[in-house]
Specification:
Keywords: DNA recombination. GO terms for molecular function: DNA binding. It comes from Pontivivens ytuae. It is built from 21 helices and 3 strands. By secondary structure, it is mainly alpha-helical. The protein has a 3-stranded antiparallel β-sheet, with helices on one face. The radius of gyration is 26 Å and the shape is elongated.
Length: about 425
C-alpha cells in the first residue's frame, strides 16, 4: 500500500500490524484468521479504522473474519428498551401450553376458558399455533367493536365488518375476505374444541362460511402482483434481481451488514427458484442437517415442513444454486475454503451462520425488497410454470414441489395469468429451442 497524505491518523500503523501478524502466522492475506485481526487492533474504533482502510486501499485482504468481530461488538452494546428485534426460538411441543397461556392473557375471560380444549385437541402443533395466532388477532380488535365479546353470529358479523372496512382511528387496516375467513376460523376452532354452545358455534361458522364464499369469488390480491411479474418477463425478472444481489455482494466489503444482506438475499432467491419452500421453513434450515454440501460441491436439501409435518426432499440442487450457496457460505473468503467453512458451520443456521435463526418472515421480506413479490408468490409462479411445461403430470409435480398432501391443494396455487402470459412464454421458449 502506498503512503497517502489523506489517510486518517493511525491507518498505516494498524494495517502494518495486520500484515506483521499475517507474516508471523504464515497466513495468506486473502483469508486472514480471527487471531490475525485480533493481534492488529486494540479497540472497536481501531478495528473499524482497519476495516475501512483495507476495504478502500487494500481490497485483496479478506475481511470475512473481521465481520464476526464487528458483530460481537454490536451484540455487546446495550440496547434501549423497545429497540432491536431478535428472532424468537421455536417453542418446543411440551412448552406449547405455557406459550399459548401467556399469549391469551389479553383475551376476554370467556375465551380463555375455552383455550385448554384447543390445546388438548388431536391436531398438529402447527395448526394449534395458527389458531391461537388468529384468535389473538381477533382479541386485539375487541375494544374497537360495538358488541360484547360473546362468541356467536353477532360477534362474528361485527368482527368481519370491522376487518373489511378497517378502522383508521385504531390503526386497523382493511383485509381481504379470505383473511377474514382465516381469522374467524381460529375462533371456530377455539369454540369447537373448547365445547362452546352449539348454537353460538353454528352462528360463528355461518359467518365464517359467508366470508369464505366471498373470498372464493373475489380476485386475490396477489393477482395484480403476478400480472406485473409476467408482463416484466416472469422468472427473468427474478433472475435479474438475483444477479443484481450477487453483484452487489461482490462489490461491497465483506465486513459490512449490506454485504451480508445482499448475499443472504441472493442465496434465498437461488434456493426458492430451485425449490419454493415456505418462508418459515427457509428461515430455520441448518447447515449439515437440512442443507448439506458434499466435498465435491453438490448441495442437497431435505427438511420437515413446519406446517404439514411432512418431509420435503428436494434432492440435489442445481449447480448454479450451489455456486451461490458457496458464495453465501464463504462470506468473502476464497473459494478453496468452501468445504472447510461448511464443516466449521455444521449445525448453524444457514442464513445467520450462527446458532440463532432469522425471524420467520425475514426471507420473504428480503425477496419482496428486491422483486416486489413476497416469497409466497414464488410458489404460485413455480406451479404456473410446471403446468405450462408439463400439463399431463403437473398436478403431481405441483403437489410434490409445494409440499402438499394432495393434488387438490395445489390448485390454490394458480394465477389468473397462468393460461395466458405463462403459457405463451413457455410456448415461445420451446419454439426457439426447436428451431435451434
Amino acid at each position: 500500500m502506498s503512503v497517502r497524505a489523506d489517510l486518517p491518523p493511525g491507518a498505516i500503523s494498524v494495517v502494518g500490524r495486520l500484515f506483521d501478524s499475517l507474516a508471523d502466522r504464515e497466513e495468506h492475506h486473502g483469508a486472514p484468521s480471527r487471531a490475525a485481526f485480533e493481534a492488529a487492533y486494540g479497540s472497536e474504533s481501531t478495528l473499524a479504522l482497519l476495516l475501512r482502510v483495507c476495504a478502500t486501499h487494500v481490497p485483496e485482504v479478506g475481511l470475512a473474519e473481521a465481520r464476526l468481530l464487528r458483530c460481537e461488538y454490536y451484540t455487546a452494546r446495550p440496547r434501549a428498551a423497545g429497540h432491536g428485534r431478535t428472532a424468537q426460538p421455536a417453542t418446543a411441543p411440551e412448552a406449547l401450553a405455557p406459550w399459548a397461556t401467556k399469549k391469551s392473557q389479553a383475551w376476554p375471560r370467556s375465551w380463555q376458558e375455552l383455550l385448554p380444549g384447543l390445546l388438548d385437541a388431536p391436531v398438529r402443533e402447527g395448526t394449534i399455533r395458527r389458531h391461537v395466532a388468529s384468535v389473538d388477532r381477533c382479541a386485539a380488535l375487541v375494544p374497537a367493536l360495538r358488541c360484547p365479546p360473546r362468541l356467536g353470529w353477532l360477534f362474528g358479523w361485527e368482527l368481519g365488518r370491522l376487518l373489511q372496512d378497517g378502522y383508521a382511528g385504531k390503526g386497523i387496516a382493511s383485509v381481504a375476505p379470505r383473511t377474514i375467513s382465516n381469522y374467524l376460523g381460529g375462533l371456530v376452532a377455539l369454540g369447537l374444541h373448547g365445547e362452546l354452545d352449539a348454537d353460538e358455534l353454528n352462528g360463528l361458522r355461518a359467518v365464517r362460511q359467508s366470508w369464505l364464499r366471498k373470498g372464493r369469488v373475489s380476485r386475490k390480491g396477489k393477482q395484480d402482483r403476478l400480472d406485473v411479474l409476467y408482463a416484466a418477463g416472469g422468472y427473468d425478472l427474478i433472475v435479474q434481481a438475483l444477479a443484481a444481489e450477487v453483484e452487489r455482494a461482490r462489490r461491497l466489503p465483506a465486513w459490512t451488514a449490506e454485504h451480508e444482506r445482499a448475499r443472504s438475499t441472493s442465496a434465498i432467491l437461488a434456493v426458492m427458484i430451485n425449490w419454493p419452500a415456505r418462508t418459515g421453513d427457509v428461515a430455520g434450515w441448518r447447515l449439515g442437517d437440512e442443507l448439506v454440501r458434499t466435498p465435491w460441491g453438490e448441495w442437497t436439501l431435505r427438511y420437515r415442513q413446519e406446517k404439514t409435518g411432512r418431509m420435503a426432499n428436494a434432492g440435489p440442487l442445481w449447480p448454479e444454486t450451489g455456486e451461490i450457496l458457496d458464495l453465501h457460505l464463504l462470506a468473502g473468503r476464497p473459494g478453496r475454503l468452501a468445504q472447510t467453512r461448511f464443516a466449521q458451520l455444521r449445525g448453524a443456521n444457514w442464513l445467520t451462520q450462527g446458532p440463532a435463526a432469522r425471524p420467520s418472515r425475514w426471507p420473504s421480506e428480503q425477496v419482496k425488497r428486491v422483486t416486489g413479490l413476497p416469497a409466497h408468490d414464488l410458489r404460485t409462479v413455480a406451479a404456473d410454470y410446471l403446468r405450462c411445461h408439463a400439463a399431463e403430470t403437473a398436478a403431481d409435480r405441483v403437489a410434490a414441489l409445494l409440499g402438499h398432501a394432495s393434488r387438490q391443494a395445489g390448485a390454490e396455487y394458480r394465477s389468473d395469468c397462468a393460461a395466458t402470459a405463462g403459457q405463451s412464454e413457455w410456448q415461445a421458449i420451446r419454439a426457439r429451442i426447436a428451431e435451434s
